[in-house]
Design brief:
The complex is a heterotrimer of chains A (298), B (313) and C (362). Chain A has two domains: 40 residues, no CATH class; 235 residues, MetI-like fold. Chain A is 67% helix and 0% strand. Chain A contains 14 helices and no strands. In chain A, helix 8 runs antiparallel to helix 11 and helix 13 packs antiparallel against helix 14. Chain B is an all-alpha fold. Chain B is built from 14 helices and no strands. Chain B starts with 34 loop residues before the first helix and ends with a helix. Chain C is α+β, with helices and mostly antiparallel strands. Chain C folds into two domains: 233 residues, P-loop containing nucleotide triphosphate hydrolases (Rossmann fold, 3-Layer(aba) Sandwich); 115 residues, OB fold (Dihydrolipoamide Acetyltransferase, E2P) (Beta Barrel), CATH 2.40.50. In chain C, strand 11 and strand 12 form a beta hairpin. In chain C, helix 2 packs across helix 3, helix 2 runs parallel beside helix 4 and helix 3 packs across helix 4. The radius of gyration of chain C is 24 Å and the shape is elongated. The chains are: A mainly alpha (298), B mainly alpha (313), C alpha+beta (362). Chains in contact: A-B, A-C, B-C.
């Protein structure tokens, strides 16, 4: 008796059953949720979502709201500065740690520990450190520099830099670790060849090692960027968006619209813009990394 | 026997002449205080001080009394050490109407973190196992969606999840939050486990199948025992990640069950009353203590965890 | 005139002594191969000569100049690595020129040197490509070119062919030999674990083990008169047969193992001649003959065939001689089966005998 070929559906049945949570998450929450939010960003949902189509009204209103414009401006300044500083500082620290130094583990542990902390903790610590009456400003004034002024958290013009300091304190360690992993992945023989060729160390880094680490730089850039767009807790803890609305960010705008102002449509539209921002960075990267002509890095 | 080219065991070649050992010999001379070392270690120490400063300020502030703080320098060590702020932060600090301190948030966070960590790791490890060794049609499509989902800002999915949780009747409860953490932990953990299981020699898996073991048999009897390190990495990742979460806590729970970070923020940033900086800093340290302990205890595994999460597989 | 000399070199990492009191003199134009299994210190020694590792004690001279404290770039060496170590973001031309540009060599001189190297190595058509677009063999040619343009007297090769497949390896091996023949007066030091590479390329081979040189001699001597038991076992494939036994000296010295007695009157003992005592007798499989070919050999015996391994051109036979395993090589067409009893013979003059205790050649 020839055995019949088992139904395709039941092949790997256990694997399929076990994957149900993943499939539900991917399809219902991630895909479905995203589509749902984008669709409802074209409605005039207020306290509750409702399917009354208003076209691009929400977006028009969004881009006419000064708070949103400030949020976007902050995000741009903050984002660009975080990118530059964390990449540069992170790479330099990694390069320093890569010099076969003593106590490498200790230094690495110190540079990375803030990354283990919550943004809330980071925000509150730096709020305290930057407190004009007791913190850095007052200490430096008490040293004799009485005209020293550094109160970012109470000065709308520079508040974003106060947040930047905290963000760099927390995040640079991560960049350093990624860069260090990249440096350690460089073939030892490349360094030897450069030494035999008589190429000075800084030139070896600049012209040979950094170009070789391009994939790591790009991956790090994507990670930092997606993190920047999501920045929320840090601002809530450190400034609460203040003074006034000077340190508002898009993620906070979304939360406030959805859960405080009963203005769901605005929240949906704002979060859709956030999604677009991330996609602008992620899609070219994903194409480079996974698409294109298959594997390119090696 | 010179023609044989023999050398004796001391290794002295017959042709080595005796005038040899003049001039430079041995290692290059090297000064401990070379300019290079001064710059190198100088920079590292300055940067290390910058990184440690906030931790130091947190600790000293939390050990001072308010009068001493009002005198002014955040960096000066406490003249008189007091643990009062710690006690107050833990047991009696107020958020809104509750005046039972951070302890409430701490226990909430414990009740959120433990089930979330277990559930998310259980599901993600099975996902990774199925994806790497039992590939079925379409599996990679779902996995791709999952990974792309990891890049989508959470804000986009916040409200749809509110609706899902409300439909399930668990909106505003710890159960709901556990589910949310499980969902959002899934991409990175699945990736972590998938890459790990993909590095297990496939012969092992084939041998087990020939021996008649099935999906669950291979998972529990072979894969699980040999992948303890990766489970530890996943645990470190999740414990710190979930403990530090603020956004999901504030969106999906209600004041009575707020996790510690949310409660901390409410204590410190509440507008009413006189600011008690020492209590605030004590509360901040207490909240940061769990991830810090995990971090310092786990050492290189923490690094491995974030590297595995960050650098693609 | 010595081109490279290493004098009383010591290298330790902490408490671990990697190289101990090592001495080596290499003549101008010589091709010296450092041969040994992994971890024997051969690459370490090469890195010391290059100046990539700081030595603990001793001196290094290159072209009669004490370079012990010199930087690698100032030692007058070029180096080729196992992993090629090409700069991936630069073209082949860029790779060749980068070091020269840094040394501020004039532009037309750089071009001239690159043209010459490219012509010598047949890489002219590749100059505008990047390393990723090259095959392994082409990459290694470029890496050799990078050493060549430095216009130096000493070339260091660190297992340059180990990352290539067998066919390419054989091709490039000949290429390197040809290069050495064309560049008279260029000294080459070549590290490998592959004995075929060593035998084919070397003027002299230094066999290393545990940080010390076991024997330094030309390939024929290493093969025919291994200095100790380790060298005998390391060189030769299939490897040499060892039979433990004793030497007895009556009128003529004989080797005895069980019931087998081998007359050693034709064996050239070194030093003070034969002494009775425990020894290991070594005879290479290719020096043992069978049947008719064996009839004229001074020593003959009957053996039983255990295993036959046909390898095409020839066949390796595993047999038992009086309880001792004996491998020998016969023509690939010889019909043999397990259990056959055959007559074999060899000339003890071609054997190598080692003291059982010191493992030194007698």
């Amino acid at each position: 008796m020839p055995s019949t070929r088992p139904n395709q559906l039941f092949r790997n049945l256990n694997a399929k059953i076990a994957s149900i949570p993943m499939i539900l998450t991917a399809v219902v929450v991630f895909l479905g949720g995203t589509v749902w939010t984008v669709v409802y960003s074209f409605t005039d949902s207020k306290l509750l979502p409702r399917m009354r189509w208003v076209g691009l009204d929400q977006y028009e209103r969004l881009w006419n709201t000064s708070r949103w414009l400030i949020s976007i401006e902050n995000l741009l300044i903050f984002g660009i500065l975080v990118l530059i500083f964390s990449l540069v500082i992170g790479f330099v620290l990694a390069a320093l740690l890569d010099q076969k130094i003593r106590f490498e583990d200790t230094f690495r542990t110190i540079f990375l520990y803030p990354f283990a902390l919550s943004f809330i903790v980071t925000g509150l610590v730096w709020q305290w450190l930057l407190n004009p009456d007791f913190g850095v400003q007052s200490v430096i004034r008490s040293l004799g520099f009485e005209n020293f002024n550094f109160d970012p958290l109470y000065n709308a013009d520079i508040v974003i830099y106060g947040i930047l300091i905290a963000a760099l304190w927390q995040g640079t360690g991560l960049v350093m670790v990624l860069m260090l992993a990249g440096l350690r992945g460089i073939d030892e023989d490349i360094w030897k060849a450069a030494r035999v060729d008589g190429i000075p160390m800084w030139k070896t880094y600049l012209f040979i090692v950094i170009p070789m680490m391009r994939p790591i730089f790009i991956t790090t850039l994507v990670i930092i960027t997606t993190g920047i767009v999501k920045v929320y807790d840090l601002v809530v803890a450190q400034t609460g968006g203040g003074p006034g609305i000077a340190s508002e960010v898009p993620a906070k705008y979304v939360y406030d619209m959805m859960f405080l102002s009963q203005n769901l449509g605005q929240g949906f539209a704002a979060s859709t813009i956030m999604l677009l921002t991330v996609m602008i960075v992620v899609i070219p990267w994903a194409y480079l990394e996974f698409g294109g002509k298959g594997k390119r890095h090696g | 026997m010179a023609d044989v080219g023999l050398i004796d065991h001391a290794g002295t070649d017959a042709r080595v002449d005796s005038k040899a050992l003049e001039g430079p010999r041995g290692a290059r001379p090297r000064r401990v205080l070379s300019r290079r070392n001064i710059i190198l270690y100088g920079t590292l120490f300055v940067v290390a001080a910058y990184y440690l400063l906030p931790l130091y300020v947190m600790v000293v502030t939390s050990l001072k009394g308010m009068p001493e703080i009002r005198l002014g320098n955040v960096f000066s060590p406490p003249m008189e050490i007091t643990f009062e702020p710690w006690v107050k932060a833990w047991a009696t600090a107020c958020t809104g109407l509750n005046c039972d301190g951070l302890s409430r948030g701490f226990w909430n966070s414990v009740r959120i973190t433990i089930p979330s960590v277990i559930l998310s790791i259980a599901i993600a490890s099975v996902n990774g196992y199925a994806l790497s060794l039992w590939r079925f049609k379409g599996a990679n499509l779902f996995f791709t969606i999952l990974i792309v989902g990891a890049f989508i800002p959470y804000q986009v999915m916040l409200y749809p999840i509110v609706i899902i949780l409300r439909e399930m009747g668990i909106y505003g409860t710890l159960t709901g939050l556990v589910l949310v953490h499980t969902i959002f932990g899934m991409p990175i953990l699945t990736l972590l486990f998938r890459n790990y299981f993909a590095s297990v020699p496939e012969e092992l898996f084939k041998a087990a199948r020939v021996d008649g073991a099935g999906f669950w048999g291979i998972y529990f009897k072979i894969m699980l025992p040999m992948s303890l390190p990766i489970f530890v990495v996943a645990m470190i990742l999740q414990v710190t990640g979930i403990w530090n979460d603020f956004l999901f806590g504030v969106v999906y729970t209600k004041p009575g069950v707020y996790p510690m970070t949310v409660q901390l923020n409410n204590i410190v940033n509440s507008v009413q009353g006189v600011k008690e900086y020492n209590v605030n800093m004590a509360a901040t340290i207490i909240t940061g203590l769990v991830p810090l302990i995990v971090y310092f205890a786990s050492g290189k595994l923490f690094v491995r965890g974030i590297a595995a999460g960050a650098v693609k597989g | 005139m010595a081109s490279v000399s290493v004098k009383n070199l010591d290298l330790s990492f902490g408490d671990i002594k990697v190289l101990q009191n090592l001495n080596l003199e290499i003549d101008k134009g010589e091709f010296l191969v450092l041969l040994g299994s992994s971890g024997c210190g051969k690459s370490t020694l090469l890195n010391c000569i290059a100046g990539l590792l700081d030595i603990t004690d001793g001196q290094i001279f290159i072209s009669d100049r004490n370079v012990t404290w010199e930087q690698p770039k100032d030692r007058g060496i070029g180096m080729v690595f196992q992993s090629y170590a090409l700069y991936p973001q630069m073209t082949v031309e860029g790779n060749l020129a980068f070091g020269l540009k840094n040394a501020r060599v004039p532009k037309d001189e750089i071009e001239k040197r690159i043209a010459r190297a490219a012509q010598l190595l047949h890489i002219e058509p590749l100059l505008k490509r990047k390393p990723a677009q090259l095959s392994g063999g082409q990459r290694q040619r470029v890496a050799i070119g990078r050493a060549l343009v430095r216009d130096v007297d000493v070339f260091l090769f660190d297992e340059p062919l180990s990352n290539l497949d067998a066919k390419l390896r054989a091709e490039l091996r000949v290429e390197i030999k040809r290069l050495h023949q064309r560049l008279e007066n260029t000294t080459m030091i070549y590290v490998t674990h592959d004995q075929i590479e060593a035998m084919t390329l070397a003027d002299r081979i230094a066999i290393m083990r545990a940080g010390a040189i076991q024997q330094l001699a030309d390939p024929a001597t290493i093969y025919n008169k291994p200095y100790n038991r380790y060298v005998a076992g390391f060189i030769g494939s299939p490897s040499i047969n060892f039979i433990d036994g004793t030497i007895e000296v009556a009128s003529d010295p004989v080797f005895k193992a069980g019931d087998t007695t081998i007359d050693l009157s034709r064996y050239a003992f070194s030093g003070n001649g034969p002494k009775p005592g425990a020894v290991t007798f070594g005879i290479r499989p290719e020096h043992i003959f069978m049947d008719k070919a064996a009839t004229d050999e001074p020593f003959r015996a009957d053996v039983e065939v255990d295993v036959v391994e046909p390898m095409g051109a020839d066949t390796l036979v595993w047999s038992t001689l009086d309880g001792h395993e004996l491998r020998f090589r016969v023509d690939g067409q010889t019909p043999l089966r397990k259990g056959d009893r055959v007559k074999v013979g060899f000339d003890p003059a071609r054997a190598s005998i080692f003291d059982a205790e010191t493992e030194m050649r007698l």
